[in-house]
TrEMBL record:
Organism per entry: Heyndrickxia oleronia
InterPro entries: DUF2785
The protein's name: DUF2785 domain-containing protein
Organism lineage string: Bacteria, Bacillati, Bacillota, Bacilli, Bacillales
Length: 271
């Protein structure tokens, strides 16, 4: 679809274009998610999809299941995933947001089969391990923001009826990889977004606070003095801080336990 067509959809209160049914219209808008044009991809395309799927409740459960299978495919979530930095990143990261929208609907309406959910769950975990492009805002092209976007999808996985402690443990590993694998210090609140599903694990009761503390204690800081190791240490420290304040803000966990962990990862905190 062209910008003018998408703009008209928004101007007309997100009404369906004439001559298209809901599924056809959604598919056409999905087609712009890989665009390098930030306005087309984000401000128009994604905005319309979010409205159609979450406010207007377009599509049946079976249709949404088809879209989910499409979104987690090699052609979308894994499109050219071996590229460290290329324009294909936009299709991947906005596929993550599409997955999150569908999982939000499933958490409301429970239409996904257990097999369909776990297929998406496994693909999301694999994406965390394989994604190499950690850029946040790309000059001239807008937001890529892969770690933040996939964290939104993981947050919905955590909240899903099929997810328990074991599944949360695997999702934790994926999120931790996003922290430890980043080649640069996060500068666009990625660490904040990554902590949201972890806080949800504890808040939902699926992961005891004591278990989360055990997971945190197992994180190893690199001791080397090179830039890559320093980047990893800083990202881990910032992540721990975001998680600590997020948990405390919701009244989850004990201050003394969180401070023990904070001191382990932050040498500037007095013991």
């Amino acid at each position: 679809m062209l910008k003018e067509q998408l703009d008209q959809i928004i101007r007309h209160d997100y009404a369906l274009p004439k001559g298209l049914d809901e599924f056809e219209a959604v598919q056409q808008v999905i087609g712009v998610l890989g665009s390098t044009d930030a306005e087309l991809r984000d401000e128009l395309g994604y905005r319309i999809l979010a409205n159609w799927l979450l406010r207007k409740n377009f599509l049946t459960g079976s249709q949404l299941s088809v879209i989910l299978e499409q979104a987690i495919s090699d052609e979308m979530l894994f499109d050219k995933i071996d590229d460290a930095e290329s324009d294909h990143v936009f299709k991947r990261t906005f596929s993550s947001l599409l997955i999150a929208l569908i999982l939000i609907r499933d958490n409301r309406e429970q239409f996904l089969s257990e097999a369909a959910f776990f297929q998406a769950y496994e693909r999301i975990g694999l994406y965390c391990r394989l994604e190499k492009d950690y850029r946040s805002y790309v000059e001239g092209n807008g937001w890529a923001h892969g770690p933040a976007h996939i964290s939104d999808a993981i947050d919905e996985c955590v909240r899903n009826r099929f997810t328990g402690l074991d599944e949360c443990a695997k999702l934790w590993e994926g999120l931790l990889h996003l922290i430890e694998g980043a080649p640069q210090v996060y500068d666009a609140e990625e660490d904040e977004r990554i902590t949201i599903p972890i806080i949800a694990m504890v808040e939902s009761g699926k992961v005891p606070f004591s278990t989360l503390c055990e997971w945190l204690e197992r994180i190893e800081l690199p001791s080397e003095k090179d830039l890559i190791s320093m980047t990893r240490r800083i990202n881990i420290k910032h992540f721990i801080r975001c998680l600590t304040f997020g948990l405390l803000a919701k009244g989850l966990g004990k201050v003394e336990d969180l401070m023990i962990i904070e001191r382990k990862f932050n040498p500037f905190v007095a013991s």
